[in-house]
Amino acid sequence: MKHNLKPRPKFPTLVIHSTDNSFSFGYRKNNNPETDELFIKKFDKDLCNNLIVDFNKFISKKNLQKVNKISVSIGPGNFNASRLIVVLARTISQQIICPLDSFSSFEIMAKRIASRNNISTNKESFWIYKKLKHKGFIAGKYEICNNEANNSDLRIREIVLPKVMKELKSKELFFKANYVDEEDLRELLNLSNKNLLKTTIRSWQKVLPLYPMSPIN
Q1: 161 in helix, strand or coil?
Q2: How many CB atoms lie under 10 A from the CB of residue 129?
Q3: Which of 86, 93, 124, 143 is most exposed, with minimal Cβ within 10 Å?
Q4: Contact 177, 168 (CB under 8 A)
Q5: C-alpha dihedral (47, 217, 128, 15), degrees to nearest 10
């Protein structure tokens, strides 16, 4: 079935993100970071209901209808929150007939980690990891994609989606996952806008939570 898209202003972007202990929403008008509107909240006892309530408070129906692109983080993070925000993003995408794409939470923080550790050489790779409570790690691998001499704006590619590993290889670069709510939310807005033209209307069907481990971990 083909969808007839209604006219929308250029570039309004909505993003939904979650970490180990928080969830957040971001809205950007006209691809301009100065227009960013952000909402960040720590988890409470009734995340399922309060997620919807807080989302409705964050964005008006009028602004939601203008959204031209939605992006969501799919984990690793809190198991229940990852599931809930992906369901919310998929539902909105279907309802307003809007493209949806996704990024792992490690990919979102990768540029910040690379910058703070002075990793800027083209094709240089590194891992981001999170230690599990019992045994092993969750780790994803990332590569610098800049070909220019000036690496002031790093471009990073995820080459291994976060997965469970028994141990970390000592010969490679590894950095511990570090969630920073506001910085990661703004980076998700940046990634969403850069990926605007690569996403199809029915792309919500391919967006699923990342479950590299079971809830008991």
Answers
A1: strand
A2: 20
A3: 124
A4: no
A5: -20
CA distance 207 to 37: 24
Decide: 105 and 133 in contact? Cβ < 8 Å. no
If you compute the radius of gyration of the chain from its CA atoms, what whole number of angstroms results? 17
Q: Which domains are seen in the chain, by residue range?
A: 13-104+179-206 (3.30.420.40), 106-176 (no CATH)
Predicted TM-score (pTM) of the model is 0.87
Task: Tell me the average confidence (pLDDT) per consecutive run of 10 residues in the chain, 217 residues long.
Answer: 46 92 93 91 85 95 93 92 94 92 96 92 92 89 76 83 89 93 96 74 75 55
Q: Which long-range contacts (CB under 8 A, 24 or more apart) does 139-145 make?
A: 139/163, 139/165, 139/168, 139/174, 140/104, 140/106, 140/107, 142/106, 142/107, 142/110, 142/114, 144/114, 144/119, 144/120
Closest-CA residue to 67 (of 11, 123, 105, 3):
11
